[in-house]
Amino acid sequence: MGDSRRFEAGTLESDGYNAYPCRVLKIRSLMKSFGRVHAVRGVSLSVERGQIYGLLGPNGSGKTTTMACALGLLKATAGEIEVLGFSASEIHKTRGRVAALFDDATLVKGLSVRQNLEYARRLLGHGDGRGIDSALELVGISELAGQRAGSLSLGQARRVSIARTLIGKPELVVLDEPLSGLDTVGVLEVLALFRRLRDEGVTLLVSSHRMHELEKVVSHVGILMRGELVRESSLDELLKSARGQVRVLTGEPDKALEILRTVDQLGSVQLMNGSRPAGDGQLMVELGGSDAASVNRALVNGGCTVTGLIPEGGSLHDVFESMIDAVKLDVAGTQA
What we know:
alpha/beta, Alpha-Beta Plaits, 27% strand
């Protein structure tokens, strides 16, 4: 990863007692392979101070591997990583400034919740900042302080693990599937916690495949598919770019493409299965000054069978599902 390098001039801010890079995490062309398996393929992303950045993707898309490389827990095959101005190989120099929770995080079952947090506090050297009682209160589990960790439910253990990341004065909190095991009330409370941390100036990098919940709090998103970053933008920009589109399902995608390119007022029309030959497929159509009914009418009048018209851009989940469908079609096309 090279030696420690500060970010370019103009990217430091001061809050009165410390200097922070505005960009708290920068990943450039990250590659990670396990033997012949390429888990992460050329991922580049940027997380800036104060963001709630959602690293999204289906299971197996490379989210956890990317985060583990960013924190120096896995050695990258290639690429560059900077965390708070230091390379991932020097993550120890950010001690106390970065906290993390991974999906398989465990607690010492024979110890109480308080003892687990005290053990973590001493191990990580947190001498100031948020204490154990404050962290438990913040996550809403003060009543669990004396309970043995081995007797906790999955949701309770998850919240204790989140509390553990908040001890001290972390500037960047990395959370892998933090909503796992939580009931509806627990999810809402944790989302409210994310907003509070953001308001306090904490930067969060959160991985998840739960789009409906994350859409309520994330400010920026990076979407991974099959180890590749297929989109990175602010949430507002992502949803705005997807509005006014319709997905056309048809057994004659090439014919549909030819017809729709002659329709006035439509924006771009693209096959979602790339260079795949004629067969079952989908098209993404920017409506422009037209509407879905006009698209359907043009296709029917042109003798093209339409099996579905699906409006896009209603939610992050809709955008995500469209991307998954596009990837599946591309895979099918390469295998045809």
